């Protein structure tokens, strides 16, 4: 028999790899560019392997993740993703397979290093999935371009030139404009477009006077940016699961772009041209599993360029998974094991196969969340490098619906595109559109409001006209709504049209001058209610039993009916998630939500999770009975609660967003489970909480709420400087700050223009040289059930999210511990706490003061739970629903080991940011490591966040005199151990005066020659200790130059005196040689 | 290269302040269910067989596909019209992107019609095009709810009543639609480059991209009416097109196919062509519980691990158990296991239920045309 189509690959393929034990590499701490999406992908990989009966070993120091929770991997190592440590784990565990593509670039780099050093070959370990050679081809620009050339796929054309005429020749070849790239920015001479030969000649000439080479590249700015997520199995079956189009044009990093799925402005020809290229490219490269391909597409022809291929799970793949319901990471794991796509079931329908391309009948909008105001000296402009710290994904049946939802989800105070009052104002609109910042969409709105045409906005912003027209549509509706005054009834058609364009009740209320409740009532009256819709992967072509849901006003019916309550049914409990990750709220709250859901399911409750963050595990639809991928707002939660006929809602797991909704939801008649809304309010309201503490005779730092600068000064003089200034939340607001005198106080309050009666400022006494401690606890009906007291390495003044946490506390007086326990117990009793809570303390000489109390799970819950091996969230959840809670068998004093949680900063990504710690949180993630003693755990944690050992040379700027004094002894020992010390000016003199051998280096601003920064740039030091001399350091200073150089050249930096002392102490005690490779369950 | 500015005028349909006149449209299905929306395109009542399509793009291709003759298409993807419509010369059988020179659907139902459109090839809005060709569009419909109903009840007759102007149900399936969509007289299409082979194309409602797929590969195409005998044409092979309606009206076409196979003429059928091959060789077809209507239909080549994503639009499938000796299933649907293609052991006659010519949809199976050319030139 003749076969027309030869079975390509199928018969040639070998049988699936039989692996018994696989090591999975995680992505370590969350950082800008590498965030929660890898908890999602790693967790799915582990589930996929476990289903096959394969033993899984996970290495990831990110202790707050779900993937490092009990019951997932067979063993977990809280160790650095660094070739040295990973090699030791591999030696010990002897797996036969390794998964590299589920832990971001961190895991990929580490795996490639282990491959290159021959470790994998020596230990007989196979990299599963995409081969290392393929990974290397995608990572190396030259190899990549050459490989794609072989199959006629276009990449951006570029050439290096060392002479001006070479640059001109190439420019002539590719046509103007061209992009001129200069490797190093030279005094204002940066990369940029050249529109004609004269410009190129001038700029290249000037650049080549300073540097040996420039890069001339095709100028693609303004092209569309489009991505496809591709899967391929070892039988060469290949398909694209999702395509996505960036709202922002090329030139803005895709992580900084608003992304829409599926593409909206591509026609069939373009869509399938790019799809075919994706498939061809991925087959040629030989990816097995999942990858992402990014394109530039000319908006005025069929021309395209492949920008890059990521041969691993990525932020985009997490987004695509959530956008389509196709579990990319799970499927990629199975493909890595040797399965074919046709053998795997479609996880949503369970009837069809994984070899299919989802058809969406909705539109998804992803928006990045920035926190740029938290950083000093960082430009608000967005561009080719990533600065955002989180993202949201909104689902709707129209672009407007999804887009406005997404804006609200960002939690930046915006109600949507419109009805934001005067919160978003721009000085130079034209500049705002051509050089966008994090507020570009509001600039678009403002421009249109001022009558700018869609064409003009398009010319400036290069945002496709279709998107702009849709935004204009929202504005048109605003105009239509505004005609109704407070006494007019809004016609139901107008109301429905507004809801379909994504207007919230609050937006409608603001525009029509009435209350939010009035709008809600009007909707009830006219039956304008959202439909509950399924993400079913097949656009309703086949029936699907999926629990993955969203709300839309473009619907006549619901896809699901609430379960009729059976007799023994305990009802449906709503759990509110954490929303977008941002500084101060991240994967730790997702861990809490997921664990709460797991406990409730175990107890026989139906669970419904509400969250909209695509980089989470909580938004995996197998984690709850219902997943509502929608807003966590008063309005939506109420709708969902009604629709699912829920029996209660849990607000204490997802951080501050749900916590803040407690009172409103309670007032709307929803049953808040756990601690009452009134109690939550008593803890949140500063006045109420303060009098409660007074009542209980619990001490607190002096504080006052002030309306004028004079009052502030008077208060500061009364209690004595320094004082902590905490402005009320305003959109243009600045960070918290510490003032040490009248001048600073005045400058700060003046500059920020913060003191107005509308926004009172809270000022409190700032305690120096005091310890900070926290207690994470669970109470049931006011009785303390479990608690964990951790101490900070850094003294008070460093935000608790940036502090290094030690649990169990190692250096705290028993007396202090006893007092903390007592206070915790009293607060729990008074507020009748039922669930998780966290109290922060400040302690000096056993004098304990309460600085904050939150009646919700805190950032450190996963850390203490995993160290003590007692799941606090499980206990809290049981308490919340009134089920029996068991107390842990052992207390914190019985632990034979210590856990240390260290912050991860992303300053490298934030050009120009001053990496100085203060009262405002700046870290983007954290790790938690375990050791036999503090030093071991501390060093492991520091290596996990990028510290390098051994340390052979240190550059010290010791700061104020008390700090110099404190560092004296440790530095002396360090020198004695043979470590080279470099000191700046006074530090060098101080050390020399004390007979310590130190090499003096110049401050960078004091010399034209070699300075401290040149030392750093040339790799002359392994560590920089730079203790600032003032809490208010903001000017361009020598210290800033040094800190920035350290960050830019990836030299470990310590800016805190206590942390520096403890680190040196650990080094001189030789802790470095005792860093053991022990799994979590070996402690 | 022309600049974006010149080639893509942003067309706003109405000034921002003016509210367009609203024409209420009600969809009424034969089971009595109704859906309320607003018409666009031609504001006139119409009726036909309601079918849905899950493709997320490609509305110009879908609307001009003759297989939709007599049908009202419901788009499950909510936003339609985004990239406007191309110039009419896109119906060029050699260079164009449209599938015929006119719109064949009787109506288009969407959730959220986009009067704003933006694309460098756009020459007007979808609404304008529909109006020009007298076709009714409805927007503001919950197309997911409508699709669920069509899924469970199968395709249904229905009507769109605009501005309360009632009309009758119109059943396209009681007549032979091939006579409406097929060419009346033979037409020849020259290949690009050298002529490698000549085929007769039995036009049961051919999508132009089938012709393009052949001419681009050096095949001269002689497009003949749906029941035109091909034995005396002196061609190297027979291509049987897609097309609308019920294959039982096309017995005479099946006889043409029978003759060609008996004459050992290489034969390749697509969609309706697959069903006609089945009829020609005496196999039977049956109605699917859930039809295949989208651009994401997975098929596997029988006996291999090789899978393809295909574009499909059909409600009937060939019963593989009824295949005569020498014939076997070639492709199968991964979702429901139904037959997606037939082949003869000689390797000279084969057909597929899906659309290798794509447009709209994925181009994974375009290689089938290469195989056909191979057989033709062997």
Protein model, in words:
The complex is a heterodimer of chains A (1083) and B (378). Chain A contains 35 helices and 38 strands. In chain A, helix 1 packs across helix 10, helix 5 crosses helix 6 and helix 7 runs antiparallel to helix 8. Chain A is globular. The relative contact order of chain A is 0.08. In chain B, helix 7 packs across helix 8. The N terminus of chain B is likely disordered. With 378 residues, chain B is an alpha/beta fold. In chain B, the strands form three sheets. In chain B, strands 10-12-11-13-14-19-18-17-15-16 form a ten-stranded mixed sheet, sandwiched between helices. Chains A and B meet through helix 9, helix 15 and helix 16 of A and helix 1, helix 4, strand 15 and helix 9 of B.
Distinctive features:
heterodimer, A: 1083 residues, alpha/beta, 7-stranded antiparallel β-sheet, 38 strands, B: 378 residues, 10-stranded mixed β-sheet, 7-stranded mixed barrel, 19 strands, disordered N terminus
SS summary, helix count of chain A: 35
pLDDT averaged residue by residue of chain B: 92
Cα Rg of chain B: 21 Å
How many strands, what sense, and barrel or not for the largest sheet of chain B? 10 strands, mixed
Structural class of chain A: alpha/beta
Q: Please state the structural category of chain B.
A: alpha/beta
Percent strand of chain A: 15-25%
Helical content class of chain B: 10-25%
Strand arrangement, largest sheet of chain A? 14-13-10-11-12-15-16
Strand content of chain B: 25-35%
The poorly predicted ranges of chain A are 1-15, 729-734
Q: What quaternary form is this?
A: heterodimer
Fold topology:
The complex is a heterodimer of chains A (1083) and B (378).
Chain A: E1 21-25, H1 37-51, E2 55-59, E3 75-77, H2 83-93, E4 97-99, H3 104-116, H4 119-123, E5 126-127, H5 132-139, H6 141-150, E6 158-161, H7 164-174, E7 178-182, E8 192-194, H8 197-210, E9 214-218, E10 224-232, E11 238-246, E12 259-261, H9 268-285, E13 289-297, E14 304-310, H10 315-324, H11 328-336, E15 363-369, E16 390-396, H12 399-409, H13 429-434, H14 440-449, H15 454-461, H16 465-482, H17 492-500, H18 505-511, H19 516-526, E17 531-534, E18 548-552, E19 572-576, H20 587-602, E20 606-611, E21 626-629, H21 634-643, E22 648-650, H22 656-667, H23 677-684, H24 686-696, E23 703-706, H25 709-719, E24 723-726, E25 737-739, H26 742-752, E26 761-765, E27 771-780, E28 783-792, E29 805-807, H27 814-830, E30 835-844, E31 847-854, H28 861-868, H29 872-880, E32 898-904, E33 925-931, H30 934-944, E34 953-957, H31 961-976, E35 980-984, H32 985-993, E36 999-1001, H33 1012-1017, E37 1023-1026, H34 1038-1048, E38 1053-1054, H35 1057-1068
Parallel strand pairs in A: 1-2, 1-4, 2-3, 4-5, 18-21, 19-20, 19-22, 20-21, 34-35, 34-37, 35-36, 37-38
Antiparallel strand pairs in A: 6-9, 7-8, 7-9, 10-11, 10-13, 11-12, 12-15, 13-14, 15-16, 17-18, 23-26, 24-25, 24-26, 27-28, 27-30, 28-29, 29-32, 30-31, 32-33
Helix pairs in contact in A: 1-10, 1-11, 5-6, 7-8, 14-16, 15-16, 16-17, 18-19, 20-29, 22-23, 23-24, 25-26, 30-35, 31-35
Chain B: H1 4-7, E1 24-29, E2 34-41, E3 46-53, H2 59-63, E4 71-75, E5 79-80, E6 107-109, E7 112-113, H3 126-132, E8 136-139, H4 143-153, E9 156-162, H5 178-181, E10 187-189, E11 197-203, H6 208-215, E12 219-225, E13 237-240, H7 251-262, E14 267-270, H8 272-280, E15 285-301, E16 307-318, E17 327-333, E18 339-344, E19 349-352, H9 367-377
Parallel strand pairs in B: 3-4, 4-6, 5-7, 6-8, 11-12, 11-13, 13-14, 14-19
Antiparallel strand pairs in B: 1-2, 1-9, 2-8, 3-9, 10-12, 15-16, 15-17, 17-18, 18-19
Helix pairs in contact in B: 7-8
């Amino acid at each position: 028999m003749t076969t027309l189509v030869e079975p390509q690959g199928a018969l040639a393929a070998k049988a699936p790899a039989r692996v018994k034990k696989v090591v999975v590499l995680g992505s370590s701490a969350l950082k800008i560019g590498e965030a929660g999406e890898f908890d999602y992908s790693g967790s799915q990989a582990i589930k996929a392997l476990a289903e096959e009966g394969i033993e899984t070993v996970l290495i990831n120091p990110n202790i707050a993740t779900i993937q490092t929770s009990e019951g997932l991997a067979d063993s977990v190592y809280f160790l650095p993703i660094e070739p040295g440590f990973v090699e030791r784990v591999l030696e010990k565990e002897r797996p036969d397979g390794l998964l590299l593509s589920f832990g971001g670039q961190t895991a990929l780099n580490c795996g490639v290093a282990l491959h290159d050093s021959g470790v994998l070959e020596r230990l007989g370990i196979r990299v599963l999935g995409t081969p290392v050679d393929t990974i290397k081809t995608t990572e190396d620009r030259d190899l990549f371009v050459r490989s794609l050339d072989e199959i006629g796929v276009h990449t951006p054309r570029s050439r290096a030139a060392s002479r001006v005429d070479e640059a001109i020749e190439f420019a002539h070849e590719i046509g103007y404009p061209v992009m001129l790239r200069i490797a190093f920015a030279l005094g204002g001479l940066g990369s940029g477009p050249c529109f004609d030969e004269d410009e190129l000649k001038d700029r290249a000439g000037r650049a080549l006077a300073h540097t040996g080479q420039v890069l001339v590249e095709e100028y693609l700015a303004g092209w569309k940016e489009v991505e496809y997520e591709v899967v391929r199995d070892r039988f060469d079956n290949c398909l694209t699961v999702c395509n996505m189009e960036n709202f922002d044009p090329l030139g803005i990093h895709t992580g900084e772009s608003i992304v829409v799925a599926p593409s909206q402005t591509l026609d069939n020809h373009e869509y399938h041209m790019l799809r075919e290229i994706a498939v061809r490219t991925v087959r040629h490269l030989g990816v097995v599993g999942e990858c992402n391909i990014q394109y530039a597409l000319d908006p005025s022809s069929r021309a395209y360029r492949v920008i890059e291929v990521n041969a691993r799970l990525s932020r985009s793949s997490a987004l695509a998974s959530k956008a389509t319901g196709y579990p990319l990471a799970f499927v990629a794991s199975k493909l890595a094991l040797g399965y074919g796509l046709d053998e795997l079931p479609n996880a949503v329908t369970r009837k069809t196969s994984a070899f299919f391309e989802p058809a969406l009948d909705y539109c998804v909008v992803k928006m990045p969340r920035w926190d740029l105001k938290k950083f000093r000296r960082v430009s608000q402009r967005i561009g080719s490098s990533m600065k955002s710290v989180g993202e949201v994904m909104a689902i709707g049946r129209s672009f407007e619906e999804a887009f406005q939802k997404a804006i609200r989800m960002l939690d930046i105070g915006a109600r949507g595109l419109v009805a934001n009052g005067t919160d978003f104002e721009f000085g130079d609109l034209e500049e705002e559109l051509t050089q966008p910042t994090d507020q570009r969409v509001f600039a678009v709105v403002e421009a249109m409001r001022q009558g700018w045409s869609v064409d003009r906005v398009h010319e400036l912003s290069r945002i496709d006209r279709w998107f702009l027209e849709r935004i204009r549509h929202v504005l048109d509706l605003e105009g239509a709504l505004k005609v109704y005054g407070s006494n007019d009834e809004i016609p139901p058609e107008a109301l429905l049209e507004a809801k379909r364009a994504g207007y919230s009740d609050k937006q409608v209320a603001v525009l029509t001058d009435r209350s939010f409740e009035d709008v809600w009532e009007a909707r009830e009256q006219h039956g304008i209610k959202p439909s509950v819709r399924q993400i079913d992967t097949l656009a309703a072509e086949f029936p699907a039993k999926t629990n993955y849901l969203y709300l839309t006003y473009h619907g006549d019916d619901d896809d699901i009916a609430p379960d009729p309550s059976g007799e023994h049914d305990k009802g449906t409990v709503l759990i509110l998630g954490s929303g977008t990750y941002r500084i101060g709220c991240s994967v730790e709250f997702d861990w809490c939500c997921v664990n709460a859901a797991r406990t409730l399911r175990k107890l026989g409750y139906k669970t419904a999770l509400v969250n909209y963050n695509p980089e989470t595990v909580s938004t995996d639809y197998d984690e709850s009975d219902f997943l509502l991928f929608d807003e966590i707002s008063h309005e939506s939660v109420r709708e969902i609660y009604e629709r699912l006929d829920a029996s209660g809602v849990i607000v204490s797991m997802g951080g501050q967003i749900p916590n803040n909704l407690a009172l409103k939801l309670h007032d709307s008649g929803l049953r808040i489970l756990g601690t009452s809304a009134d109690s939550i309010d008593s803890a949140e309201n500063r006045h109420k909480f303060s009098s409660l503490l007074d009542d209980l005779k619990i001490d607190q730092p002096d504080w006052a709420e002030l309306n004028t600068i004079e009052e502030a000064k008077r208060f500061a003089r009364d209690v004595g400087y320094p004082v902590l200034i905490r402005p009320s939340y305003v959109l243009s607001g600045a960070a918290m700050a510490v003032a040490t005198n009248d001048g600073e106080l005045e400058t700060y309050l003046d500059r920020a223009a913060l003191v107005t009666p509308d926004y009172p400022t809270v000022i409190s006494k700032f305690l120096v040289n005091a310890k900070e401690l926290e207690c994470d606890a669970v109470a049931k009906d006011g009785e303390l059930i479990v608690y964990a007291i951790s101490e900070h390495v850094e003294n008070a003044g460093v935000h608790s999210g940036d502090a290094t946490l030690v649990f169990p506390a190692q250096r705290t007086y028993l007396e202090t511990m006893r007092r903390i326990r007592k206070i915790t117990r009293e607060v729990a009793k008074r507020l009748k706490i039922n669930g998780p809570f966290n109290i922060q303390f400040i302690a000096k000489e056993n004098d304990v003061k309460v600085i904050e109390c939150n009646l919700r799970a805190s950032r450190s819950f996963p850390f203490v739970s995993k160290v003590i091996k007692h799941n606090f969230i499980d206990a809290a959840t049981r308490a919340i629903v009134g089920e029996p809670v068991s107390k842990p068998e052992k207390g914190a004093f019985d632990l034979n080991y210590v856990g240390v949680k260290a912050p991860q900063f992303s300053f490298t990504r934030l050009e120009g940011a001053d990496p100085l710690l203060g009262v405002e949180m700046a870290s983007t993630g954290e790790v938690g490591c375990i050791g036999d003693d503090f030093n071991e755990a501390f060093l492991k944690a520091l290596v996990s966040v990028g510290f390098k050992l051994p340390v052979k040379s240190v550059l010290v700027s010791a700061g104020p005199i008390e700090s110099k004094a404190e560092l004296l002894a440790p530095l002396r020992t360090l020198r004695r151990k043979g470590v080279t010390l470099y000191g700046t000016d006074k530090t060098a003199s101080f050390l020399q005066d004390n007979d310590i051998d130190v090499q003096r280096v110049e401050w960078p601003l004091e010399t034209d020659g070699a300075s401290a920064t040149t030392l750093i740039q040339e790799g002359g030091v392994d560590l920089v200790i730079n203790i600032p001399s003032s809490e208010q350091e903001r000017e361009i200073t020598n210290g800033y130059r040094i800190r920035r150089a350290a960050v830019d050249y990836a030299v470990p930096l310590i800016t805190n005196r206590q942390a520096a002392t403890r680190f040196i102490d650990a080094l001189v005690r030789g802790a470095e040689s005792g860093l053991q490779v022990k799994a979590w369950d070996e402690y | 290269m022309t600049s974006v500015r010149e080639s893509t005028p942003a067309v706003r349909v109405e000034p921002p302040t003016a509210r367009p006149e609203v024409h209420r449209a009600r969809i009424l299905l034969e089971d009595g269910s109704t859906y309320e929306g607003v018409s666009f395109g031609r504001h006139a009542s119409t009726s036909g067989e309601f079918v849905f399509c899950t493709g997320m793009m490609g509305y110009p291709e879908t609307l001009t596909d003759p297989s939709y003759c007599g049908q009202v298409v419901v788009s499950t993807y909510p936003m339609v019209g985004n990239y406007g419509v191309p110039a009419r010369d896109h119906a060029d059988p050699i260079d164009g992107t449209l599938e015929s020179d006119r719109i064949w659907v009787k109506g288009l139902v969407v959730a959220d019609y986009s009067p704003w459109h933006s694309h460098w090839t756009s020459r007007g809005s979808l609404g304008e095009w529909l109006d020009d060709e007298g076709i009714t569009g409805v927007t503001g419909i919950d197309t997911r709810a409508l699709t669920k109903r069509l899924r469970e009840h199968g395709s249904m007759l229905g009507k769109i009543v605009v501005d309360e102007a009632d009309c009758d149900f119109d059943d396209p399936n009681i007549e032979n639609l091939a006579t409406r969509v097929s060419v009346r007289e033979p037409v020849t299409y020259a290949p690009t480059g050298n002529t490698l082979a000549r085929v007769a194309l039995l036009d049961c409602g051919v999508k132009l991209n089938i012709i393009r797929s052949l001419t681009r590969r050096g095949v001269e195409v002689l497009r003949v009416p749906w029941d035109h005998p091909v034995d005396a044409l002196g061609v190297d092979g027979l291509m049987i097109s897609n097309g609308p309606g019920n294959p039982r009206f096309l017995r005479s076409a099946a006889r043409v196919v029978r003759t060609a196979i008996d004459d050992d003429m290489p034969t390749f059928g697509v969609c309706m062509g697959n069903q006609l091959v089945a009829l020609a060789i005496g196999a039977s077809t049956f109605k699917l519980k859930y039809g295949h209507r989208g651009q994401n239909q997975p098929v596997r080549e029988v006996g291999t691990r090789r899978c393809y994503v295909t574009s499909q639009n059909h409600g009937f499938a060939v019963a593989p158990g009824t295949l005569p000796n020498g014939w076997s299933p070639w492709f199968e649907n991964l979702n429901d296991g139904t037959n997606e293609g037939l082949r003869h052991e000689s390797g000279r006659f084969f057909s597929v239920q899906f659309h290798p010519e794509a447009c709209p949809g994925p181009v994974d199976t375009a290689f089938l045309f290469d195989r056909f050319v191979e057989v033709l030139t062997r």
